[in-house]
């Protein structure tokens, strides 16, 4: 069945509005990376709640300056408030504390460094959500920006960018996110930018070793991609299952 971006957009907006009404909520806060996922979620939240009830946050941390400029394109188009919270000094202060533990080479720290940044950002948006809830006298939720393809292969940081209160695009593939982005007129520069975490210096697909298009095909039909590609996707999926479940002893 062909994906109907207009119909799906209307359903997502209704889903957001109903959830906010049922739970007596006020607004939303989300990190704006300058990429398509945060751009689409920002647009959907603004259309559902009104620009006055959405706050975007840029959180540079040894990041590319272009990401901040692209985030402003999104906030300017949809009209929501955009604040900047620079985490560079926080990150550096954290790293500086490592000297109290020992001395480590860069390769040992690389993965820890990459995952620290989204965890700092998660803490920041939740802090700001609580702060703005107090200021405006109503609950602000943290809106998640993960899509279905990323979630399937575990392409997120545990305890970081997957933590959220509402997930508007978590059941949409990358192509479906782009289709909605085109419908709600997310700026082209943002919507069609090569997906990247903005942290590692590599594109998402370079890091994963597979394309999002192939991940979507695999989710629909495991035999819809070449065996080598399917094996890679299956391995990524199975190796990330621990990110979704906490093994809990029951007495």
Summarize the structure.
The chain contains eleven helices and four strands, in the order H-E-H-E-H-E-H-H-E-H-H-H-H-H-H. The protein is an alpha/beta fold.
Question: What does this 3D model show about the protein?
Answer:
The protein is an alpha/beta fold and 251 residues long. It has a single domain, classed as HUPs (Rossmann fold), CATH 3.40.50. It is 53% helix and 7% strand. The chain contains 11 helices and 4 strands; from the N terminus they run αβαβαβααβαααααα. The chain has helices at 5-22, 36-49, 65-78, 88-96, 106-136, 148-152, 174-183, 188-191, 204-208, 212-220, 227-239, and strands spanning 27-31, 54-58, 81-84, 140-142. The protein has a 4-stranded parallel β-sheet with strand order 3-2-1-4, with helices on both faces. α2 (36-49) links the parallel β1 (27-31) and β2. α1 (5-22) crosses α7, α2 (36-49) packs parallel to α3 and α2 packs across α7 (174-183). The longest helix has 31 residues, at 106-136. The protein is globular. The N and C termini lie far apart (47 Å). The model has no long low-confidence stretch (mean pLDDT 94).
């Amino acid at each position: 069945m062909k994906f109907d971006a207009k119909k799906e957009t209307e359903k997502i907006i209704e889903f957001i509005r109903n959830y906010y009404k049922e739970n007596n909520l006020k607004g939303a806060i989300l990190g704006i990376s300058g990429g398509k996922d945060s751009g689409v979620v920002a647009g959907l939240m603004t259309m559902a709640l009104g620009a006055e009830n959405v706050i975007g946050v840029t959180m540079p941390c040894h990041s590319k300056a272009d990401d901040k400029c692209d985030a402003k394109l999104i906030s300017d188009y949809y009209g929501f408030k955009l604040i900047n919270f620079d985490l560079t000094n926080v990150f550096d202060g954290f790293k500086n504390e490592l000297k109290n533990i020992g001395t480590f080479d860069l390769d040992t720290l690389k993965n820890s460094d990459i995952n620290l940044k989204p965890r700092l950002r998660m803490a920041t948006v939740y802090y700001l959500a609580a702060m703005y809830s107090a200021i405006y006298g109503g609950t602000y939720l943290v809106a998640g920006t993960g899509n279905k393809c990323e979630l399937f292969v575990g392409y997120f940081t545990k305890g970081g960018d997957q933590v959220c209160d509402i997930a508007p695009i978590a059941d949409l593939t990358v192509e479906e996110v782009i289709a909605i982005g085109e419908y709600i007129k997310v700026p082209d520069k943002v919507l069609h930018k090569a997906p990247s975490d903005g942290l590692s210096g590599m594109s998402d697909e370079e890091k994963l070793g597979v394309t999002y298009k192939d991940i979507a095909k695999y989710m629909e039909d495991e035999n819809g991609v070449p065996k080598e590609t399917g094996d890679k996707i299956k391995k990524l999926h199975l190796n990330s299952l621990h990110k979704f479940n906490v093994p809990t002893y029951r007495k």
